[in-house]
Amino acid sequence: MKLWLLGLVIIIDGLIFGGWVNAQVKNTAVTCPTDVETLMELMLKDLPSYANRVTQRTRDGDRQEQVYNYILLAGRPEFEPLPLTNLQYKPVLSDTTKQFFFTTLERQYNQQKAVNLQNYYWLFLAPTSEGWYSILLFTQLASIEGASLPLPPQDARNGAIGQGISLWLRDCRAGILRKHN
Prior knowledge:
Elements (H helix, E strand, L loop, with lengths): L1 H27 E2 L5 H23 L9 E11 L19 E12 L4 E14 L4 E9 L13 E2 L4 H15 L2 E2 L3
Antiparallel strand pairs: 1-7, 2-3, 3-4, 4-5, 5-6
Helix pairs in contact: 2-3
């Protein structure tokens, strides 16, 4: 009888206060902006934490011989697109894709020292009726030795930054982003 009564109290408590907590979460959530510049500003504020969580989930337990990157900052967005439409045949559909450039400051740790790296990204986003989706992401990684030639651009969709962007956009479409103070 006591367990049944305790269960009933827990259920009632969850119904009463659970709704209050949900209401509080909804009041602090940010709706996904349709303006791409606002979208990028919000995303770049959250991107280091999203990307760092991706890297934390993918690490194995042996920390002795691996090199780890931590994203410290993401910023300096550039909104001027490169003219790519001249490189295609007569388009069948209008191009609604948006291009952005941004940089990250990352710190790479190994057994001997920590190295700061500035990496460059070229992001393509597409608007849909449900919200924004990441289409392509290229990166030009910083060279570790200052005298070496720049590395060629690489597809970064499956890296920590690419997955962090996809997760952030998913949360944005779901309306569960937190307001920044």
